[in-house]
Amino acid sequence: MLEVKKEIMINKSLDLLLSYFMNPRNIMKYIPYFKEIHQINENTFKVTLKWLFSVDFEVIRIFQKSTNEITYLVNRDSIPRIHAQLTHFLASIKQSTKVIIIFKYQGPFEFYVRREAQKFLENLNDKIFEELSELNMIVIKEGVIKDDKFKDVIDLASIESVNSETELVLSDGDTIVRISFNNGKVIRTLGDINLLRKGEIKYLIKKKI
Predict the structure, then answer these.
(1) What is the pLDDT of residues 173-195, one digit of tens each?
(2) Which one of 43, 53, 94, 193 is separated from 36 by 20 to 30 angstroms, measured CA to CA?
(3) Which residues, in sequence order, are bridge partners of residue 138?
(4) pLDDT in tens, 30-71
């Protein structure tokens, strides 16, 4: 099993970077050939890799709150058999955050995978800092809910806004509703939640950085 390790310092808060790395889309967009990602449940995702062929992987996210450790596990027992693990250890140091990233992989094309992993990690610090500097808000959570579960995501967006403004976006495919929160209270609403169709509703929660 190959292992690639990278240690970086990012001049951003621990909470911000935890939110950033908890969203697998923020990681996947820097990895070549990862083209699609679909959330199955709170901590399980289906990722599609397209290179010489198209392969689907199940990815499981594990978060250890006590140690600020985020791990993504990839296991595929059918051909091609692949076992991989991407772990992030985060620690606050003064005004910055220390991030240790360890990637482990067992499967085909290990030489090529090592080369791509090293390339990916080499410039990761600059890419993340540049992205977070350009954005006003980052997505901290997204998924699909039933229309009778609005209260759950509204409560979550409200709680997340205690230290920084958040925006909850709800969409049924045709109608979009945006609700902004600050210090646990609604500060503005665009659209009418009652106009959303019954059934499954896509949502995302963004947080100001």
Answers:
(1) 778 888 999 999 999 898 888 88
(2) 193
(3) 207
(4) 776 677 888 888 899 988 877 666 788 899 999 998 999 999
The Cα–Cα gap between 141 and 139 comes to: 6
In order of start, what are the domains of the chain with their CATH numbers? 2-134 (3.30.530.20), 138-208 (no CATH)
The answer to whether the pTM exceeds 0.90 is: no
Q: What are phi and psi of 89, to 5 degrees?
A: -110, 125
DSSP-assigned letters across all residues of 101-127: EEEEEESS-HHHHHHHHHHHHHTHHHH
Task: Locate 30 and state its tokens.
Answer: 């820097």
